[in-house]
Amino acid sequence: MTPREDIAPFRSFILKVANRCNIDCDYCYVFNSTDQAWRRLPARMSVDVARAAGQRIGEHAAAHGLGDVHVVLHGGEPLLAGPRHMAELLGAVREEIPVGVEVRFELQTNGTLLSKPWLDLFERHEVVVGVSLDGPPAANDRHRLTHAARSSIASAVRGIELLRSRPHLFAGLLAVVDLANDPVDVHDYLASFEPPVIDFGLPHATHDDPPHRDDPSVPEYGVWMGRVYDAWLGRPEDRHSVRMLEDIVALSSGVRGSVESLGLAPPTSTVIESDGTIEGVDTLRSVEEGASWLGLSVFRQSFNEVLHHPKLLHRQYGKTALAEQCQSCPLVEVCGGGYLPHRFSAARGYQNPSVYCADLEYLIRHVQGSLRRHSWDPQAAATPPP
Known about the structure:
alpha/beta; TIM Barrel; two-stranded antiparallel ribbon; 12 helices
């Protein structure tokens, strides 16, 4: 396999500003998965690391003529960094990026610690905020409990309502699919908060540790998301987008998608850990110990060097990096073989179809069938298929 000569630069930089969390989600790929790297990492990112990261981001933007970069503050729970320290981190990153390069800051939180002082800080530094929430109380509390095994939803909802008081700061909601939850109830509950975006993620799983299924003969995750699609289109008065579904629509019409989990466009994101080490796809921690480890650091390497790391060159191979059956699949331009961690097996590495292959096929065909029935007319497509 030969990588593309015109390697796509990084445009999104995920900073792990805190490596601890105040709740204990049982599916968390950071704290409750195979790789336990967090135990060796600083609890929060230092200003020196943030400054070095900013320098590397600025250097990369200048080298590739980027007009803007996306900096995501992540964790763990990033708000555990504290408002004063967070302000110092934000200032250190922004100061190192050249004038003329727009920095779009985003923060992903569980919402439980949001407060007016936090929102004031986000106003000053122009940070938009996404909140993780899996649905109504029973759905959310199935997996997202505190360390004392108590419900976290009241605090999360309080934080979301506070965020709604400044809608320009509200980036959207992120939910993990659980077959035990009713998809329409989950969608409608999340939509009731009027987020601009709802982002659904499939649970992290591999061929060695497959996802839970009630009936393995049925593409249950695809059916679940298909019902979300129908509910979403059936309520044209709602103004939110559903990222996975919009990506399928876009990819089906030949437009490149916006997430790593679909399509064949090379991913353009990288992760900076709290100690300054650099990772490509941190969700690979759900695969095996050290799967995300590159041995690189913002103190020693440029992001151009990261682009050419052997573990990341697969991003540039496109279709040829996929399993043989994926390469010949008529849906490959849309599904892209599925999300990288979901392709893994100890026997064949990443040369497998996604563990969600049947689910993705069902969902893509469901969406495309709806679009064909409505002649690709967005207004007509607002009526769900029979």
